[in-house]
Amino acid sequence: MARRLLLLLVLLSGCSKGPQADLQYIGQARSAAAEWALINQKAAAGQLNRTYVNSMHHWLRDAIRTSSDSVTERNSAYAREMDLLLKLPDDAQPQQLRDHAARLKKIEDSLESA
Amino acid sequence: MNPLELTLGIMTAVGGFVDISELVFAAKAGSLFGYALIWAFALGTIGIIVFSEMSGRVAAVAKQPVFNLMRHRLGLKLGLVTLAASVLSTLITCAAEVGGMGLILHYLTGVPYLLMAALSTVVLMATMWVLPFKWIERTYGLLGLLMISFAAALVAIHAPWGKIAGGFVPHVPGGLSTKEMLSFAYFIVAILSAVLFPYETYFYSSGGIEEQWGPKDLGTNRVTSIVGMSLGSLLAISILANSAQLFGPANVGPEIPGSAALEVAIPFGRTGLLLALLGMLFAIAGAAVETCMANAYSVAQFFGWEWGRHRKPWEAPRFTVAWIAFFLISLALVLTGIDPMNLVEYAVLFSILVLPLTYLPLMLLANDKKYMGQYVNGRLAKSLGWLFFAIITAAATAAIPLYVLTSGGQG
Fold first, then answer.
1. I need a labelling partner for B394 at 20 to 30 A (CA). Which of A33, A104, B157, B238 fits?
2. How many angstroms from the chain centroid is the CA of residue A58?
3. Burial letters for B122-153: b for 16+ Cβ neighbours within 10 Å, e otherwise?
4. Residue B247's closest chain A neighbor by CA?
5. Alpha carbon distance B129, B174 (integer Å)
6. What residue spans define the domains of chain A?
7. Exposed (0-12), middle (13-18) or buried (19+): which is B212, by Cβ within 10 Å?
8. Model pTM score
9. CA–CA dist B322, B382 (Å, integer)
10. CA B200 to chain centre
11. Which of B256, B273, B400 sits opposite A59 (nearest CB)?
12. What's the CA gap between B241 and B24, in Å, rounded?
C-alpha cells in the first residue's frame, strides 16, 4: 500500500508539464536574479571582494541557465525573461536585474494564484 | 569539573553544530517563511540536547558506544540494516560537507571547486592522521566559532526582536496556499533532521569513550550538551533571522552557502565576508571530520574491531583504513560532479529515515537500571526521550511523501 502511494506521488510529481510544472524554475531564476542584483549593488559599494563576486556570478548564472534549460514552455514570457537575464554582463546594473526579478515574481504570483 | 575542559567542550559543540545542511536550510527557511520556523530549530535543539546528554551519560557510565548497543539491542540482522542505512546517510552527509568546503574555498580563492574539494580532503586526512583526538576537536571547534559573526550581524542590522521572539512559539503563518503549507511542513522535517543528525551522537558518545569519561564527568557532559548545543542553535537561528530580514523582502531564496555569507557582508563589508566564509569553512570542516569519524566508529564498534584516535593509526589498522576509505568515497561522490546542494537534500532525507532506529537502542539502554545503576534516565529524561522519539518517527514517516510533493521544498 505504502509502495503504491509512493509510486503515485512520484508519477504525479514527475509527469506534470506546462507553466505549473515550471513554477519551481521560475522561482529559482527570480531568486538568482534578485541575488545577482544584491551582489552587484554591494560590490559597487566596495563591500565585497572580487574573487567572491566572480564566484557568485558564475554560480548564479549557472542557476539561471539550469532553470532556463528545464522549463517546458520555451515560448513563454518567463523563458524569455530567463534568456534576457543570461545575455546580461556579469556587472549588469542592479536595478536592471531587479526589474527582471520583479517581472518573474509577477508571473510566478499569477501562476500560483491560477 | 575542569573549567578549561568545559569551555573547550562548549566551543567544540558550537563548532560542530552548524554544518552545511543547517546553513542551507536555515537561510532558505528564513527567506521563505520569515521567522515562523525558528521554533523548529528550538524544538530540534531540545531533542539533540536530550539525546547527546543521554549518549554521553551512557558512554561515561556503561562505557558503551551507540553501535555496540545497537548490535546487542536490535540483534545482528536489524542491527546490520541500521548500520548500512546509517553509514549511507552519514557518508552522503560527509560528501556534502566535503563539497561545501570546496565551494567555500572556491569563494575565497577562485580556484575550481572540485580541486578545492580534493585539497580539503587531503588536508582533513592529514590533520586526522597527525593530531590527537582532543586537538582535532579543539582546532575545528575553536575556529568554527568565527560563525559568531552571524549573530553579530543580526544585532548590527537592528533585527526585529519581537518578531524573532514570536518565532519561538510553534505556529503556521497565515495565508499559505496548500502548496506552501506542504513546503512549510517539508522544512519542519528537514530542519529537525539537520539538527538531529545521527552522526552527532555517534561522534559525541565515541568521543566520550576516547576521552575516558567516567561518572565524574557527567556534570561536564550535561553542561556541554545544554550550553554547547544551545549556542550552536543560536547561530543557526541567527542565520535564519538574518535571511528573513535581508533576503525575504529582496525576493532572494538562498540556495548555496555563498549566499549565507552575504548576511554578514551586508553590515560588515569585506571583513564580515571573510569572517563568515572562514567560520563556515571551519564549522563545515569540523562536521566533515565528525561524519567521517562517526562512520568509522560505527563500523568498528559494530564488528568489534580495535578503534579510537587515542591509539596510533597503525594500532587500530581496520579503523584507520575505514576512516580513510570513508573520506575517499565522499570525495569520489563529489568528483562525480553531483550538485553539492543535492547531496545536502539527500543527506537530510536519508538521515531522518534512520533517526528512530538510532535513538531507540540508546534510550532503551539509558532506561536500563542494570547497566546504568544510579545514573539511569530520570522521569524528565525518559519523558523527553519518548516524546522526541515520537516526533522523529512522525517526521521520518512524512519525509519521503513531503520531499516528492514539494520537489525537495521547491514548491
1. B238
2. 14
3. eebbeebeebebbebbbbbbbbbbbbbbbbbb
4. A35
5. 53
6. 19-113
7. exposed
8. 0.91
9. 34
10. 6
11. B256
12. 13
